[in-house]
């Protein structure tokens, strides 16, 4: 099998560029999906406590690593701290719960999922009093506990997700232990070039989420009477030209930009197809056409964090 492209970390660790996403992968199907992925060459799995399926993802790890053909050390596993565990005393217990569910001793990467703090036990807030304000639980408090988790060897690398340049700069001004990774939404309708450039200059590895337009959220495009990413005529045309599928073009585009990318699928054919995305080069002409598709459109709007007048209503600082 062709070696997978990787993103390099300062200590020499490598994160495979294509990984498997697990958001909305049902409990009854995710174990199989992760097993299929690992047995067909994936070496990067993206998880999160809030996806509600880490226990089932862990069953796949237990089985595959138990069989002995693939070692734990060969696979890059990411998970994310949920917003209700941002207080310093809650971070490591939340991480330990994730490790227990995933049946692992350590994570390769742990991310602060969102720059938003909820009160303990809140999944998605319905009113302002279910949030902590940024003064009550500043992000640096959460970050220092992430740094401690790394010191304890529970995670190899730490980073953040859904942070703007402004929020990255603010965090970086308050710590010597800079985020090593950022996970954000990126696809041809949302290029975020400035953010990518900032990360590149600051040695932050970027992972692209929702690279295919996030499944049912593709309806958001249909509501605007525009094609979903997978049906976009430019993407379809480029796919035909290279004998690839539309999904493969979207994934390859992300890899060529130097990001990692984590398409979600629970379908065996599509899981295999997605990993085989980067066998050819998108040429200058393809890239110029894809450049024209950028319209700053988000599938994951963050609107679920907006209740009446809380301090998180402008989550992306836009
Ligand atoms: P994706 O953009 O990966 O799209 C997933 C959808 O595309 C599913 O409906 C899947 O269906 C379908 N699909 C998969 N492969 C193909 C293909 N080759 N051709 C056509 N359709 C395909 O959506 P996500 O929003 O899930 O993003 C990917 C991952 O990113 C998440 O699973 C999660 O791990 C992470 N993420 C992180 C966030 C964060 O806040 N940090 C937010 C959102 C996502 P099927 O399963 O039937 O194949």
Automatic annotation (TrEMBL):
Site-annotated residues for Lowers pKa of active site Tyr: 80
SUPFAM superfamilies: NAD(P)-linked oxidoreductase
Binding residue positions for substrate: 113
GO molecular function, one term: oxidoreductase activity
Database matches in PANTHER family: ALDO/KETO REDUCTASE
Domain NADP-dependent oxidoreductase: 18-295
PROSITE patterns given in the database record: ALDOKETO_REDUCTASE_1, ALDOKETO_REDUCTASE_2
Residues at the active site: 51 (proton donor)
Origin: domain of life: Bacteria
Family: Belongs to the aldo/keto reductase family.
Record's protein name: Aldo/keto reductase
Keywords assigned by UniProt, alphabetized: NADP, Oxidoreductase
């Amino acid at each position: 099998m062709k070696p997978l492209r990787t993103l390099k970390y300062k200590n020499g660790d490598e994160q495979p560029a294509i990984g498997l996403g697990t958001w909305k992968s049902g409990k009854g199907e995710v174990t199989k999906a992760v097993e299929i992925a690992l047995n067909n060459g994936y070496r990067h799995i993206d998880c999160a406590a809030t996806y509600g399926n880490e226990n089932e993802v862990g069953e796949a790890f237990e089985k595959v690593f138990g069989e002995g053909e693939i070692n734990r050390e060969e696979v890059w596993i990411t998970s994310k701290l949920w917003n209700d565990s941002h207080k310093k005393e809650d971070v490591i217990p939340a991480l330990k719960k994730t490790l227990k569910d995933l049946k692992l001793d350590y994570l390769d990467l742990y991310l602060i999922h969102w720059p938003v703090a909820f009160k303990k036990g809140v999944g998605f807030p319905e009113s302002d009093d279910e949030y902590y304000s940024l003064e009550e639980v500043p992000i640096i408090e959460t970050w220092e506990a992430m740094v401690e988790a790394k010191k304890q060897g529970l995670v190899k690398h730490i980073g953040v997700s859904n942070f703007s340049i402004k929020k990255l700069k603010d965090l970086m001004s308050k710590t010597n232990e800079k985020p090593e990774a950022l996970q954000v939404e990126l696809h041809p309708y949302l290029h975020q070039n400035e953010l990518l450039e900032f990360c590149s200059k600051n040695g932050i590895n970027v992972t692209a989420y929702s690279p295919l337009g996030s499944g049912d959220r593709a309806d958001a495009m249909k509501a605007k009477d525009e094609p979903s990413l997978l049906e976009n005529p430019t993407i379809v045309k480029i796919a035909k030209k290279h004998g690839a599928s539309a999904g493969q073009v979207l994934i390859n585009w992300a890899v060529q930009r130097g990001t990692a990318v984590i398409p979600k699928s629970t379908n065996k054919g599509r899981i295999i197809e997605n990993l085989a995305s980067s066998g050819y080069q998108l040429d200058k002409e393809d890239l110029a056409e894809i450049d024209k598709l950028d319209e700053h459109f988000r599938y994951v709007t963050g609107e679920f964090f907006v209740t009446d007048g809380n301090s998180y209503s402008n989550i992306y600082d836009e």
